[in-house]
UniProtKB/TrEMBL annotation:
Domain Isopropylmalate dehydrogenase-like: 50-376
PANTHER family: DECARBOXYLATING DEHYDROGENASES-ISOCITRATE, ISOPROPYLMALATE, TARTRATE, ISOCITRATE DEHYDROGENASE [NAD] SUBUNIT BETA, MITOCHONDRIAL
Catalysed reaction equations from the record: D-threo-isocitrate + NAD(+) = 2-oxoglutarate + CO2 + NADH
GO cellular component entries: mitochondrion
Gene source species: Mucor circinelloides f. circinelloides (strain 1006PhL)
EC number: 1.1.1.41
Keywords: Mitochondrion, Transit peptide, Tricarboxylic acid cycle
Membrane-spanning segments: none
Stated name of the protein: Isocitrate dehydrogenase [NAD] subunit 1, mitochondrial
Amino acid sequence: MLSSKFISKPNVVAIQKIATRSFASATSIPVPAPAEQKSIFPKKYGSKYTVTMIPGDGIGQELSGAVKDVFKAANVPVEFEQYDVSGLTSEDDSLFQESIESLRRNKVGIKGTLFTPTSKLGHKSFNVTMRKDLDMYASLSLCKNVPGVDSRLSNVDIAIIRENTEGEYSGLEHQSVPGVVESLKIITRAKTERIARFAFDFAIKNNRKKVTIIHKANIMKLADGLFLRTCRDVAKEYAHHNIEVNDMIVDNTAMQLVSRPQQFDVMVMPNLYGNIVSNVGAGLIGGPGLIPGCNIGREYAMFEPGCRHVALDIQNQNSANPTAMLLSSVMMLRHLNLDEHANRISSAVYETINSGKARTVDIGGTSTTKEFTDAVISAL
């Protein structure tokens, strides 16, 4: 049985069916911490896990509502601590700090995307701050064709892994003189080594055969050169696993993705490139509403849609596709070793889409978010 604890800020804007190989139900995520590090274990009271939920801005409340409804119907032993944080609030927002403390306690969270202002007067991204403060350094987005959804290209099955805590997202910017801004890109050997090892461990655990290193070392010879060399050095440690390793310049990668994405299996890259590549991947398979994802570190795990779209333009219209959020929650259940519940929900989502019982507007249907969610519940 599922129950929720809400912490909101006022005035702020049948027989279990096992799906065919699906990224959310079958993917095994490496745990970066050593087995003896007990702090990685999620918080559990009795038979229930406690998970931090941050719905986020835009369509976040609708998507989180779908997860809660499905979990309740499936009798998932999870209790949510919900924090209605908004990126539209100030940088010193107390509720945001409370949500971080909740994550520190519970070790596991699920979230939508928090809005980040683009004005120079706006604060730093809450999304980036959360990943950096809790050192959730590995971002994983899973891009795979969904049966029943028309897409531009077929046989797409890509795991996109990006380093989450440095690169252009380091937040080190300043105006040296009026009209001249310097923005620093940080690449370190230590952080590149651990994201490379995460990528190869992921490949091994999921029987993937190839890892592609994405870079721009032909121009950024020091920064991306260090990233490329370090990934190649780490690859040598995994040579006995017979995983094919290659590298590709990021602009060529964009072209190859939209022309022959079947050549990619696991991709590993710095932060900004991963942001762009995951969005290209979404376009390949039918949109951002279909890609699940997560952020993993030594102690904490946060599950969220892989494309991180706020979608303020369709907020409160009951039209958002909850698939990515539901499949991200399935990945979370796998992380909690609740495989039976993960199987039921994953199978129900894929059956709903493939059978045509319910499809939201973005994947060629007319169903509302609520109708899609109800159809998933009926398929459990």
